[in-house]
Amino acid sequence: MRAADLMTASLLTVTPDTPIAEVANLLASRGVSAVPVLEADGRLAGIVTEADLVRRVAGEAAGRRPGWFSTVVTGRVGTEADHYARMHGARASDVMTTEVVTVEEDTPAADIARLMEDRKVKRVPVLRDGQLVGIVSRADLLGLAFAPPSATAGPVPDERIRRAVEAALREQNWADASLVYPAVSSGVVTFHGFCRSPSVPKALRVLAERVPGVKGVEMDLAPPPPFVLGVP
Predict the structure, then answer these.
(1) Which pLDDT tens digit goes with each residue over 175-228?
(2) Per DSSP, what are the bridge partners of residue 49?
(3) Domain-by-domain residue ranges, the chain?
(4) Which of 111, 122, 138, 211 is deepest in the core (most CB within 10 A)?
(5) Which CATH class is domain 158-229?
């Protein structure tokens, strides 16, 4: 899956001159958490998020900033000026985040997820030749990750399921593949053998449920006897 497959293409946008009150009302009335800010030529200028507006409210509640002497001596003139504009500006351009993380239409979903995690962002605009064409949000990725498996053309043969489960077992060190073996009947996987940890059955269930065609999972496991553990 790529960004183009996941993104929301029907977007609400504002201009840099859109009044802050209008932006806030738009977010509240349309149930969205962010709105892109576009220049007249369609280029992405920035994005206004709920967090940007909340920071403004929090800043106003915090009261006055450090005095002029402290500001000048510590070299914080630019920072204080930016803060003042954010706290008192009346337009979207005054409060928007301008350092926006973006992706292209062909960016893989896994890369988008890593980017969101690394940069601690909840959404990424999707660009085509510098123009905004959509947005991928965390919700879009969650929908992909936790979507129910698509229906197959017919039932998956039990033997195919068994081979797939065995292959998955061999890839997991915790599974003790030499101590556990799966049997499959009418799509139901039953794990037989020995289990060295109470955490293993849950993980085995998750492992089996990820295999296409599995309709249920059962356990027939027992603690391993001493000779299996190598205890004299």
Answers:
(1) 888 889 999 999 999 999 998 888 999 999 999 998 888 999 999 999 888 766
(2) 34
(3) 3-145, 158-229
(4) 211
(5) alpha beta
Q: Where are the beta strands (DSSP E) in 72-195?
A: 103-104, 123-128, 131-137, 180-185, 188-194
Burial class (CB in 10 A: 0-12, 13-18, 19+), 218: middle
Chain Cα centroid distance, residue 64: 37
Helix (H) or strand (E) holding 141: helix 138-145
Q: What confidence tens digit (pLDDT) does each residue in 62-121 have?
A: 455 555 444 444 445 456 677 677 777 889 998 898 889 999 999 999 899 999 999 989
* Contact in structure between 185 and 162 (CB atoms under 8 Å): no
Angle at alpha carbon of residue 120, lines to 115 and 123, rounded to 5°: 70
The DSSP 8-state label assigned to residue 175 in this structure reads G
